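Feature request, filed as a ticket because there's no other form

It would be nice if the structure record came with a short human-readable summary line next to the tokens. Right now we just get the raw output. Example of a typical job, pasted below so the devs can see what we mean:
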Amino acid sequence: MINFTLTMDVSFDFSSKVVLISGGTGALGRTLVKKFIASGAVTISSFLNEKEAKKLKIENPKVELTKLDMLNEGQLLKTIPQLKRQFGTINILVNVVGGYLGGRTIIDLSETDWDAMMNLNLKSAFLITKHIIPLMKSGNGGNIVHISSRTGLKSEGGDSAYAASKAGLIRFVESAAQEFKEFNININCILPTLIDTDANRKAIPNGDFSKWLSAEDLANVILFLCSSGGRVINGSAIPTYGLS
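Raw output as currently delivered:
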């Protein structure tokens, strides 16, 4: 397995690309939006929360916003063609949509909890990939990056639904990459652990923040995977563990 994090100041040129970041209003998403815009890409972010979308627009005035529920296939069927008409195509998809649920044994886990993790972390990835791939097939290919987790490789317990959904995402990426490699479409995922965000610091105030991953470093890995330099990487789950 590849295990690396790009910690230097990395620059990329995506000036001819259209990028869709699903869930770009979170900490990692905002960093990706900023870096793709700085690289010259036409950058679109999906959102659900209007307040967070306005904040993102203030931080990055050049970002294009589209409201989209990733679990609503009807919305995807309407929104993706609209994006094609407006921007011509989607060259890059970075899917940041996901969530975590832990601290519960299987006995304590409800069916609703289980379904929520499967939907948020796996079904959303399936649906957005399904409806973006035809755009990439009709163009000159593209790049897709999903966010899985190290927990998708090994769980320490208490997070069975989350672990299963992230493990499923790794296998989904492997399968999708094989299905569409002949169309010059690269599909990968990264496997982070704890990301250093305000929300995580509040949730785990006694954590060792020095060992947590920075959104900047993760964004650099993702941009590399979407660049010409990452063309040889396909169907991979990239460990981005940092020092944890």
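Something like this underneath would help us a lot:
The chain has one domain: 18-240.
Residues 18-240 form a domain with the Rossmann fold fold (CATH 3.40.50.720).
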